[in-house]
Amino acid sequence: MPAEEPAEENGTGIVLEAVGGLYRVRLADGTEVQALLRGRVKRTVRTGDRVVPGDRVMTSRIGTEPGFVVEEVLPRTNELARAGSGPSKPKVVVANLDRCVVVLAAMDPPFREETADRFLAFSESAGIPPVLVLNKLDLPGARDAVREATGLYQRIGYQVVGSSVRTGEGMEALAQVVLSGISAFVGPSGVGKSTLLNVLDPSLELRTAAVGNRGGRGGKHTTVSARLLPLSSGGWVADTPGFSDLTVWGVDLRDISSAFPEFELPAQGCRFRGCSHIHEPDCGVKDALESGGIGPTRYQSYRSMREELAR
Ligand SMILES: Nc1nc2c(ncn2[C@@H]2O[C@H](COP(=O)(O)OP(=O)(O)OP(=O)(O)O)[C@@H](O)[C@H]2O)c(=O)[nH]1
Ligand SMILES: [Mg+2]
Ligand SMILES: [Zn+2]
Fold this sequence. Notes:
This protein is an alpha/beta fold. It is built from eight helices and 13 strands.
């Protein structure tokens, strides 16, 4: 008698959610099934590599509940991780993202370049291309508050979408951004991530912090565990708790300079290999800073992130 039931039917799928050892998997034909982990996958999971939303898996049908097992987890293209507490390893929360939509408000909360730089750099260092959304452009003075930053990030090569859920500005462009693949919306609390998503797809009914409405028009869904939500347009959005607070991100910052793409070319002119671009002589990055090729706010963000890492 084999320890595990023989497979009847195989299929690839994508993990949408993990709840109590049970995995909700969307199969290639569009059906959603519940699956358990096959014994050997479970053993891998015990060594620390969890199966998370976004994982692409091989499944097979079994004759007993819940009807399917995950046979194999396919290699990931990237992962978003949260720092473990104390010395424990970073915890992967979601895998195989096609982009990070970094949302900041032009005001309320006030726009800060360094906050934008941190979210962009974390996305870069995870190997996930970011798109920058500058929201709440309807507020008086908002456009002026982000005019310079918009140019700065566009020159670096980032797509920047200015938006407002009040006027609808930028919503068409944002819909295009998330049209296919898996997107994670990240950014500080209160910038409008959930509100934007609810406009993109009202059926999501995500909870938002509505001001001037004491009863709250909060939706049904509070994020407790990471999951992938379908957008009516065909894309997926990773609903991940706790990604508005960067201190909890478990991303390795040792190679932080590569997370600032515009540093790459100037850094080839550095005299020393592994130049930190802080105190070394003949530094291509500092030269570019002097000549205006690298923006002072970007360099300042880089320095402050490095200092934090060194502590
Ligand atoms: N004026 C204005 N207010 C907006 C806009 N988008 C969102 N808001 C408001 O900003 C507040 C915060 O929005 P949320 O969508 O809850 O923010 P969030 O980024 O999801 O915040 P967390 O879930 O805490 O991370 C709410 O009161 C929204 O109504 C906008 O384009 N213009
Ligand atoms: Mg939210
Ligand atoms: Zn240098």
